[in-house]
Amino acid sequence: MDETKNTRPFFSVIITCFNLQQYIADSIQSVLSQDLDQSFYETIVVDDASTDASLQVIHSFSDRIKIVSNPTNVGVLSTLCAAIRISSGRFICTLDGDDTWNPAKLTNLFDYITANPYVTFVTHSCCFTDAYGSQTRVNAPLPSHSNGGIRELSEMLKEDILSRRGFTWLGSAMTFANKPEVLNDFIKFSTSLPFPCYTYQDWPLAYWFASLECSLFGYIDKPLMNYRVHPSNHSGGSQTLAKARATWLKSYNTSLALYLISHLHKTPCKYQRITMSYLALHHIVSSCLSRGVRPPLSSLLVIPLLPLPLKLKVKELSRLSLISLFGPSACYRILSHLSIPNTNDSAFL
């Protein structure tokens, strides 16, 4: 490793935070406690105008991290783009401010990238934890693939992302090459979106890389991060109408971003059809929730025709049927009382 010790770090770690005063210290400490020498990485923490004590907690680490504080809330996508602009590492790793890393994550990444020097995007498995950090389960492994080498693995991972199957974990598991010719175009695209402040960050970025022929994807079959499920994040449940509206609005805008990337990069028609189908689905549900109305019968007839997984179509038809019977507000009150999770897990979780 000594040969890489120079003025440019190997990794830039970007931690994004908004109102995570309970968890942000654990997130930062998990990076600072990596078993890779700290001369190999820089840590950038961006607070997106939190209204709780998050920024004060972040400043308690000020002697070991770079801190960026947004004057106004701009959303996680724009926050990530701002941090990318000031990152100096060869590779950029992302971490949500409520998740944590395994202490050996960066060492595993360093070894993997050194062994596969042309890789441009790497992800790995993860563990799920409850709000208190206790492990609840390990993420399902990737579908089996033959030992055809990094090229075959890369094509499988890119196919998974472009097809929106959701096997590949993103979010706090993402690492990507800090290539200005790629990232500057992505940032320019992100700022052109209608509502970047209401758009998820990981899927557009991963989709951008996956839709480039020159990109090479890699995967480490180890659970190197801990995904915390708690009431404040979208995987903790959308069991109120207000939370459901926010989740589905972000899902719709994220689907719109993928649809636009698919056409911009001229992906094969099958991927364009998939992005259009998810966009239609998210439009139908988010429109009902945002306007507080029952879905029209035509919506219930359209969803079975979309080229989407059967399980997903059954789930969303069930949701829309409940909304049709009881209306959006009553529907989510019923789901809340029954303790039935109703987050949008259609490839964004």
Structure report:
The chain has 349 residues and is of the alpha/beta class. The protein folds into 2 domains: 231 residues, Alpha-Beta Complex (Spore Coat Polysaccharide Biosynthesis Protein SpsA, Chain A); 101 residues, no CATH class. It contains 12 helices and 9 strands. Strands 1, 2, 3, 4, 5, 6, 7, 8 and 9 form a 9-stranded mixed beta sheet that branches. Strand 1, helix 1 and strand 2 form a beta-alpha-beta unit. Helix 5 crosses helix 7 and helix 11 crosses helix 12. The longest helix has 24 residues. The chain is globular, with a radius of gyration of 20 Å. The protein starts with 10 loop residues before the first strand and ends in an 11-residue tail after the last helix.
Itemize the secondary structure elements and their pairings.
Elements: E1 11-17, H1 24-32, E2 41-47, H2 54-59, E3 66-69, H3 76-85, E4 91-96, E5 100-101, H4 105-115, E6 121-129, E7 135-138, H5 150-162, E8 175-177, H6 180-191, H7 202-210, E9 217-228, H8 241-264, H9 269-291, H10 297-302, H11 310-326, H12 328-338
Parallel strand pairs: 1-2, 1-4, 2-3, 6-9
Antiparallel strand pairs: 4-8, 5-9, 6-7, 6-8
Structure at a glance:
The protein is built from twelve helices and nine strands. It has helices at 24-32, 54-59, 76-85, 105-115, 150-162, 180-191, 202-210, 241-264, 269-291, 297-302, 310-326, 328-338, and strands at 11-17, 41-47, 66-69, 91-96, 100-101, 121-129, 135-138, 175-177, 217-228.
